[in-house]
Amino acid sequence: MRVLAAMSGGVDSAVAAARAVAAGHDVVGVHLALSTAPGALRTGSRGCCSREDAGDARRAADVLGIPFYVWDFAERFKEDVIDDFVEAYAAGETPNPCLRCNEKIKFSALADRAYALGFDAVVTGHYARLHDGVLRRAVDADKDQSYVLAVLTSAQLSRAMFPVGDTPKPQIRDEAAELGLSVANKPDSHDICFIPSGNTQAFLGARIGIRPGKVVDSDSGAELGDHEGVHGFTIGQRKGLGLPGPAPDGKPRYVTGIDPESGTVTVGSAESLDVWTIFARDAVWTSGVTPSEPVNCVVQVRAHGGLAAAVAESDGTGLRITLQEPLTGVARGQAAVLYQLDDAGDIVLGSGTISGTSTERPVGSEASAGVHTQ
């Protein structure tokens, strides 16, 4: 096959490209220029898309003996990922930009151009496994990235390749060293790639500005303090609330609700964070077929952690996910990813963007509060 290898400049994508070459494919490497100011998007192990990364990708391609190009997707990345990220936070949501990048950039904009140029598939260094259209968790649980790939459709998955998902990360580094790739010991990137400082609140504040509001107690309705914008908060947050102290009972307070229209941030006890039902929009089923019956599954609501057994039902374009045990820190804008346990490794069934939650316990248990739109 003729395949396009997306090479970020890191070790994973370099080894993915190397494995595609070793498998006998006709491979071309491409680095995505995602910043209008590439020199400003890396600070040590934070960030990406710097001139350093482009150079590392080019050197890896030279070692592998494959053609290499740089494609400019900066404007598309700004519109579909960065602007989306800022708008979501301004609306009181907690988005994951890596999902949006995979959905809109790597497996849409990049893939569309690749197919138009005659390539059969796009190769990336994501840690996930894909066989016969079935997406599974990676062998290396600590590096698994299936969560951020669960937004991909069956059509997108049919033209994707994830060569490193069957191998633990330390072995990938060893393989890179054996191949003579200079990125073998390059540090992994952390946090959000377009915020190299790691200060998300400052990044958002510079773009959203000050939108003052009140911090309110969920039980009494008492005003406890002021804030400069709901973008500084997320559901389940405990620190940085700007409050003088804990609740009267001495217990810490947590963000339990965010209302972007009124600017109100509600805080309460840890117990009030328990969620039993999740509602999600924009459902994607990786098989391409929407189940007609409820599905027993495991739901994951954060890239690392936040798992619970559940029953998921489709309502057309959305999902109702009933949990068998409560989850905490579930926020609008996060992805709810559905997995099916399997002896060969967890299968990704699909995903949806969380639009609301309910704290009401399932039938047979003591009822709690009602629906949270957060």
From TrEMBL:
Superkingdom, taxonomy of origin: Bacteria
A GO molecular-function annotation: tRNA-uridine 2-sulfurtransferase activity
Positions of the tRNA-specific 2-thiouridylase MnmA-like central domain: 202-268
Residue numbers annotated as active site: C101, C193
Record field: catalytic activity: S-sulfanyl-L-cysteinyl-[protein] + uridine(34) in tRNA + AH2 + ATP = 2-thiouridine(34) in tRNA + L-cysteinyl-[protein] + A + AMP + diphosphate + H(+)
EC number of the protein: 2.8.1.13
Family: Belongs to the MnmA/TRMU family.
Protein name: tRNA-specific 2-thiouridylase MnmA
